[in-house]
């Protein structure tokens, strides 16, 4: 029985766990694949770097391009990350007839179609479960389990760093800066936390989720993005006052269009969700993806969203499928973008806002504020008035309107004499009372 | 492009939704499969029964055997349920070269191997995602996503009826009989609720989950089973007092064996789990499956566990995969029982007990009770003493011991003079303080 030969590109936190599992689970992998899986090379930047795993003698190489060009490699695992050289290496691997498993969300979100076309042309598999929400099986359920259903909405907590920070702000009352510092001390946030806290990482994952859920091409550029660095302790308290919690959500939705096919709206931003929502109980650095579909109803997938070992589990799950396909001389379903839905700009996306306003406590204030909403075409769901005199505060939650209308309403409020300050503006998701 | 021809066996709550979705999603199914999917027959018991869907003229038949024997049927969907005639029909369909999708947990748990062997021999697919936890994708993740990992434990709330009843008992303080009646009034429980409340339904699902998780053959007979009809309001209150909640759990675990391969323990019984456990927040008739694996860590899958439309979503997801395989001239991975693990009897399975005891309030009582535990080789984790005088109660939570040791301890306690009554005995899962 011929062994399937695997090359691993990258031996950092994920790659080293992949190498470890390939060794430790060798017997099980052989039984599950139907043939032995043999590691034939590991490409690294520096041969002498410290590693979490002992790579067998002679397998390490700094020549990644040479490794993927070898004609005896059946399967390539790319866990380098970033756009280049990862893209060139994956394309070269496919051209040389290898099947590819990758965890590279940035590359897939930026230039997925190029990779999918290359896989299609080569007749090989390109699998990437590990790219979204680490070990949580979510891409395969979207792509396969729900293939007979119509997904209408995906709401995900897909970035562990920001969830840890927001959870800390919620439980301790800390501000953003303090919570970020704690996340950095504990290793949940990087020294330069931009990719996480500004939502770039979540936006890449949102693009991948939306593409699969709606059978359309959505890239990172199509995703509206706001991070959590502007979320204040006052926002978190305001959420708490209405029985909600602030989460950074990746939201992918079908949006009905008059006289046309449903469009797709994809966005990443902090939002208030009710504490009774299943996503509200996702604590610390955990991830979860909540899916709504016509026939299945509401599903949730929960687990560790990052980390070397969980991510390696997802990579190896893909590897087993790809290896089985290889042995059977077939390939899995390729990407499907047949629905070809339009992506809606954020301004046209329908959302709901929570707005807290410091106002002068005098007669007619509520009427004036209500008029400002009405003039912008936004209807109000609830108003709560708190305090009196100098501390008077109005908290308004709107009904659904376009994000442009809601944003114009806030601008309008800011310009009103009776409004001393708009103290908190945040979108709202889920059913609030 | 040749259409793939589908026969549906059964047109009850699930079958009628399958027929509806096949029609409503026809365009999407064609795009996702790569060929049209055409309904060619629906087998029913009576032609004139009331149905939730209008079946196209001429497709209804009472001759199920004739339908699966037709040589122009590519795919057969079995949603009749029960052992016969479902088994004969599935075997006949496979022999005739059709691929099969079924939701039949009872049949799979009783006689799965016969079906798997028939599928293997015919070179056809047999898929059954809908058999466990309705719309929740759990079998595919176990079988495929976690194929490169080592699953150590599966804890599932896989029966909606009993979860509804226990949730009601927890939130309202009702007893079992009252909560069951409400479940029956609301349509969550059947007139004869035995299969649900005595754990038979959950045990069938546990057998299926254990087989997939541990790559071994586990049948319904291998599953230790206790239902919830003996759970009292006092048990639920006792759980509440220690920050826990009572759930009917399907538990599938690897159990280390000295000097031998890990064995498998599979059981269904009510258990107290801490309210902080992700499964504790599964309310009403929802289902959830919690999976622990070596590399991925803790995952949870949550959603509606029953109902015509959710179950039909799972059936159609399988149908798309099976149809794609058919077009590609291949089949998915068959069942794998290579690990061939032994199934441990309940007595040898390691568990933990919660025991509440009415005792005489006199000196030496605690020492006597502690001695009873020690003499049976069980060590105590926590003891809580409540009340005084006639109302004195001891609540003991043990450390792990074999179920036989724990059961003997309870018997021993019942025979002690100072013990007036053992008021609550229940197994405990998850990390309690």
UniProtKB/TrEMBL annotation, chains A, B:
Task: Give UniProt keywords alphabetically.
Answer: Amino-acid biosynthesis, Methionine biosynthesis, NADP, Oxidoreductase, Sodium, Threonine biosynthesis
- Cofactor(s) the record lists: a metal cation
The EC number(s) given in the record are 1.1.1.3
- Pfam families reported in the protein's UniProt record: ACT, Homoserine_dh, NAD_binding_3
* PROSITE patterns on file: ACT, HOMOSER_DHGENASE
Catalytic activities: L-homoserine + NAD(+) = L-aspartate 4-semialdehyde + NADH + H(+); L-homoserine + NADP(+) = L-aspartate 4-semialdehyde + NADPH + H(+)
Origin superkingdom: Bacteria
Give the protein's function: Catalyzes the conversion of L-aspartate-beta-semialdehyde (L-Asa) to L-homoserine (L-Hse), the third step in the biosynthesis of threonine and methionine from aspartate.
For this entry, the protein name equals Homoserine dehydrogenase
């Amino acid at each position: 029985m011929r062994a399937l030969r695997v090359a691993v590109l990258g031996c950092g936190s994920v790659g080293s766990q992949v190498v470890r599992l390939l060794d430790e689970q060798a017997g099980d992998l052989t039984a599950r694949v139907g043939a032995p899986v043999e590691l034939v090379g590991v490409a690294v930047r520096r041969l002498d770097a410290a590693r979490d795993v002992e790579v067998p003698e002679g397998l390490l190489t700094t020549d990644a391009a040479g490794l993927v060009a070898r004609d005896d490699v059946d399967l390539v695992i790319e866990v380098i990350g970033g756009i280049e050289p990862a893209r060139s290496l994956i394309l070269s691997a496919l051209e040389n007839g290898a099947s590819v498993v990758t965890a590279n969300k940035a590359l897939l979100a930026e230039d997925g179609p190029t990779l999918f076309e290359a896989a299609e042309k080569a007749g090989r598999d390109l699998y990437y479960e590990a790219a979204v929400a680490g070990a949580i099986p979510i891409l395969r359920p979207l792509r396969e389990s729900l293939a007979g259903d119509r997904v209408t909405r995906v709401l995900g907590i897909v970035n562990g760093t920001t969830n840890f920070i927001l959870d800390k702000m919620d439980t301790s009352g800390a501000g953003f800066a303090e919570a970020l510092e704690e996340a950095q001390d504990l290793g949940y946030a990087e020294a330069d936390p931009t990719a996480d806290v500004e939502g770039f990482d979540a936006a890449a994952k949102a693009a991948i989720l939306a593409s699969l859920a709606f059978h359309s091409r959505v890239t990172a550029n199509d995703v509206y993005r706001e991070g959590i660095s502007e979320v204040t302790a006052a926002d978190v308290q305001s959420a708490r006052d209405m029985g909600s919690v602030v989460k950074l959500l990746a939201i992918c939705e079908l949006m009905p269009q008059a006289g046309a096919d449903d469009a797709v709206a994809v966005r990443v931003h902090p939002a208030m969700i009710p504490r009774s929502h299943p996503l509200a109980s996702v604590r610390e650095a955990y991830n979860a993806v909540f899916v709504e579909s016509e026939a299945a109803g509401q599903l949730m997938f929960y687990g560790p969203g990052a980390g070397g070992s969980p991510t390696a589990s997802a990579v190896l799950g893909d590897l087993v499928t790809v290896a089985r396909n290889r042995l059977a001389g077939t390939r899995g379903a390729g990407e499907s973008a047949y629905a070809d839905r339009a992506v809606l700009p954020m301004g046209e996306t329908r959302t709901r806002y929570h707005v807290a306003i410091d106002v002068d406590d005098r007669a007619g204030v509520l009427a004036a504020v209500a008029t400002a909403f009405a003039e912008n075409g936004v209807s109000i769901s609830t108003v709560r008035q708190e305090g009196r005199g100098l501390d008077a505060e109005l908290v308004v939650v709107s009904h659904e309107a376009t994000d442009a209308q809601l944003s114009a309403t806030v601008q309008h409020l800011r310009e009103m004499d009776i409004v001393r300050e708009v103290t908190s503006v945040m979108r709202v998701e889920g059913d609030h009372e």
